[in-house]
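Quick note —
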Amino acid sequence: MTMIWLRRFGARAPALVGVSGGALGRSCSCDPFEQRPTAHGSACRLARTSTGRSRRGLTVVLALVMVAACLPSIVGCTHGGRGHRIDGSETSVVRKHPPPKEPIVRHVMCMFENNRRRWLNQDKAGDRDPEGIWYRAWLKTLKGESVIRDGTFHVEMYRIERTPDNTVDRTLVSDWIYRTDRVGRIGQPGWLGDGYVLALRWATKDIAGSEIEIITTFEDDYGRTARSETYRMRVPKYSF
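Predicted structure written out below.
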């Protein structure tokens, strides 16, 4: 009788199945591989519609959860890194949050040795021209204290050339990036306090005999920067 009633009143069967939820709902048999429903197509369509809506709702909820989880990386709040490789130096800057309550570095003070001792002889050929320079650097706070910090040194070297019409051309010829834990430390800190030793090598570049400028910048792991003065000097020829 139930089968006959469903065949005769197939258009109304879904409503009755949805209300009763009894034997009619359980006796439904659908072939998932068929494009059309079987004899109990109306009841099957109702069951598939309800299940599809539930699955779509679950899919939407899961998608929202995934978007919420990925939102910090989308807006740039991750503790990402940054890598550099310039003139053989390599470093990664790690952003930390929040910054500690400690004095901020406001200035980088540099001190070079006399004109002969500051140069480095790194040429395997053994010529007398310098291939680098070294100097000391201190990180100074607003009160003039020397501090040790985690961060990165950025050093730029410019070549100064004067044209016949007495204008000055300033060209970047080398730059270096070093983490503070990759450079030397002053072995016996004096009255200037604890600091760092930077050694810059320009290898085979033709710098000897040129006038140069060196600028040192320190960047801590929170993105705050401090800069040195611009030091101008002439690289000698045949200094070794």
